[in-house]
Amino acid sequence: MAEKDSKDKRTKYQKLEEKLAFKKKSAWEQFTDKQKKEVFLLCDRYKQFLGKVKTEREAVHEIEAFAKKNDFFDISKVNKLMPGSKVYDIHKDKNAALVIAGKRPLSSGARIIVSHIDSPRLDLKPKPLYEDSGLAMMKTHYYGGIKKYQWVNTPLSLHGVVVKKDGKKVEINIGEDPKDPVFVVSDLLPHLSSKEQNKRTAVDIIKGEELNLIVGNIPVDDDKVKQKIKLAVLEHLFDKYGMVEEDFVSAELEAVPADAPRDVGFDRAIVGGYGQDDRVSAFASLSALDSIETPEHTVIVLFYDKEEIGSVGNTGSRSNYIEYIFGMILGQAGQDNSAHNIRKSLINSIALSADVSAAVNPTFKSVNDMYNAHLCGFGVALEKYNGAGGKYSASDASAELVGKIRNLFDDNKVPWQAGELGKVDEGGGTTIAVFFASHGMDIIDVGVPILGMHSPFEMVSKADIYSAYLAYKAFISL
Ligand code: MN
Ligand code: MN
Predict the structure, then answer these.
(1) Which domains does the chain have, with CATH numbers?
(2) Does the global pTM surpass 0.70?
(3) Ligand at shortest distance from the CA of 120
(4) Are the CB atoms for 160 and 170 separated by under 8 Å?
């Protein structure tokens, strides 16, 4: 044994390379056999979560269920927050916070993981229903940055709420049960596309006003009625939900891909499914809370809506919800909850913006700087900055923070990679990081690389999902 060790056949420069060069290694090659089993178990739970959660409201519902199941209590109802106390808050059914009180006062800073639970989709317009050419149709308005042509000829389900004239709220969820009908935007057939469609540029192959859902075909049996098919749909909606056409005005109905998540590849290494941006981070951060001891610093895991449309609105991360949560924690813990101490607590906090980045698509490598690109299955992506052009709209984390985080990941054997979304000036994107950074806290993007982002069927390596889970778990105890 000793003799073998002394016979290191590497050359001097091989050893030097080992010592000096930044190595990239697949996360699959870094995991132990036991971990590889855990990867698949975690992702089985993830697929269930993803299949159940198709809207921000449904995500909040699952998050609340997780909180209750894991002994988190409603923050407004606890007597006093003590170190180790677990509390949660739900904001307007679209925004949530889970908190584990730390040993130190909040003014020494929290450890925050923030993700978003809204995903690109087709929303019904305020007056969606019409009849044309023997079909009942519904007009939609897309939400978030989609490639519109990807959303045609694919089964869509309808999720959301309708607030009726009498103030009663009905929930609608049609298309997930295999016995349910689905709704479809029909593309133009190739036989008749040559003039109408084939000369269009890619962004206009399907235009916004062409994202119209097919919702019915059978007319009512009455020749005195003009729009017989439309009326038949209205009759169905009234019978089933007690709603009338005007109720669509006060509804939030989202058409989303109806399919359940699936494994991709012979080796089942990849999860494919809708809404992984950014529910994969929501799931990984939630899972990281499953068996946590009383942390040194208060842990806050946040879930926001509206990220895909610029984090605006009262449930987006530009709202003052974070200040509200900090004020609540301070107040309930009997600590100084003055405006100054809230700001101090925010400024002393460290946060991970848990959001997806792009994985290299081998077919379209031209958009990546391959020296600085994220690879599928190579671990969680650490992104110092994103934004566009000359780092516009990037929060650009400090070297000190990146240093702290990469050491944390190394110490906890978290597979990670560092890079950028794509080539300089190729395009770009931002996350919640920039809005949280405005509170003065340290924040950096740490999320999984994804293939086919914003498409109806996004793909993420299970190794990266597990790496994100390990990363968030390590961060919580920082
Ligand atoms: Mn995202
Ligand atoms: Mn997105």
Answers:
(1) 27-119+274-476 (3.40.630.10), 121-257 (2.30.250.10)
(2) yes
(3) 2
(4) no
